[in-house]
Amino acid sequence: MMKHLKKLTLLHSNDMHGDFLAEQIDDDLVGGVSLLSGYISKVRQEEKNVLYAIAGDMFCGSVIDSEFHGLSTIQIMNMLSPDIVTIGNHEVDYGIAHLLFLEKCAEFPIINANLYIKTNHTRLFDPYRVIEIDGMKILFIGVLTEITLMKCKMDKLIGTFVTLEAAAEEVGKICNTYNATDVDMTVLLTHIGLEEDKKLAAMLDPAWGVDMIIGGHSHDFMDAPEIVNGIPIVQAGTGTDQIGRFDLMIDTDKNRIDSYTWTPVPINDSTCPRDKSIEEVIRTYKDTTDEKYGRIITKFVKKLTAPSHIEETEIGDLFADILKDALGVDIFLLASGSVRVHELGPVVTKADFDECFPFDDSAHMVFWTGAQLRHALLRMLRDETLSGEHTEFYQVSHGLAYEYDEISHTLLKLEFEGEAVDDERIYTIGLQDFHYKNLKDSFDLDHDEIDKNHPQREIATSCVQVIEETLQKGQHQNSDLEGRIVIHMTEENDRKRIERINSGKF
């Protein structure tokens, strides 16, 4: 009996982060939405059945996106015309209410199965979408990351499905409901990172019929899919330098994939035509931002670096020191994830600074005993952090130094101003607002517990303003690694750290 096969081409991006402009690398123009749009349009002309999906984090990472609070990104994404999008953690950076406004501006469907209003359990987004193309029905389900859910916890009206187990159960409910409608293929659009995708895939019952996971968040450039529980898992790195491409043959009689190939496609001017219309839109936004963001803030002695989020960095040291000295705390713990570039300077424009440090939070002074500081650092240095599973790590200001051994899970040294930290002494600690509000997740400390030492207080309404103002005061600023943070990692985690650095990931 002959199979009834139909071809489907499924393109996908993730973690674009407002990467609108192409870069000159050697003799090629690489990336940018003009070339990306040109490639997508080319495929849509060449192939009969084409879908384009985005697995989260369209927003944040460029001054164009930040200046227009995502409206510029939505207009540009409308011109790319994705068929389906799920949200990522940075989609909530401008607030849930603003995200819902941006959804109204989008000319494409946005799905997410995680977020709902607590009072009546109404979902904020459609959790899934069935797309029909050439008689085929493709079911897409959107799943989000726990890091986003930490941010959403600040809104007491918003509830979330937190665990992978809960997400898997929700996927099962949706699949069970729609398997009866002759769905030919089921795709999870996730934004939880590759390692979490693999765990999720292992939890899925094969009877649910999930055919693939298109993911994001961990910025993985892949040469081939990871296969877990018979499910291929893919990502397309970060930005617009690459796009993922599935070419699938669908058996419409048996409602399943008969065969597929997956290829990571580089986006450059040798293989992708330019889209002049989208360039005009970007130029309009860029002219506005160039005038505002082209001014020079400072000039460092040298280029400063931040190659990894789980070790001491030059940029992290400088920014933590600025906040400590300006705000008058003993120790400032600066979230590594606040620094979004690997290099800064030596000349630093307003645009450079805003791309490096885009998240503006207030700052809080909290009062911890030395024992609580030790406990907080051990919480931060747990295995999940050092393996790079996107839990938060903190840069430390001058005066604090520690040495940690991952094998024994012990602090070999913990000193403040050259002396061992006193477990009974109260130290003033500076924290960004997001990390203060998520004290339990980040440090395993309770607000009520630390307020017994002394009530916290807000000491600045804008960390960005404090750092920028300090940088503008003088030229020739510098930062050298001082050995404030020394971590003896397992060979496996050190190998992963080096691989992330070499691949351009934090």
Walkthrough of the structure:
The strands form 8 sheets. Strands 6-5-4-1-16-17 form a 6-stranded mixed sheet, covered by helices on one side. A 6-stranded mixed sheet has the order 9-10-12-13-15-14, with helices on one face. A 5-stranded mixed sheet has the order 24-20-28-23-29. It has 2 domains: 5-286, Metallo-dependent phosphatases (Purple Acid Phosphatase, chain A, domain 2); 294-502, 5'-Nucleotidase, C-terminal domain (5'-nucleotidase,  domain 2), CATH 3.90.780.10. The chain is globular, with a radius of gyration of 24 Å. The chain has 17 helices and 30 strands. With 506 residues, the protein is an alpha/beta fold. α9 crosses α16 (463-473).
Cα separation of the termini? 52 Å
Q: What value does the Rg take, in angstroms?
A: 24 Å
Q: Work out the helicity level.
A: 25-40%
Fourth CATH level, the homologous superfamily of the largest domain: Metallo-dependent phosphatases
Which CATH class of the largest domain is shown? Alpha Beta
Mean pLDDT: 88
CATH topology of the largest domain: Purple Acid Phosphatase, chain A, domain 2
Number of domains as seen in the coordinates = 2
What overall geometry do the principal axes of the alpha carbons give? globular
CATH architecture of the largest domain: 4-Layer Sandwich
Largest sheet: 6 strands, mixed
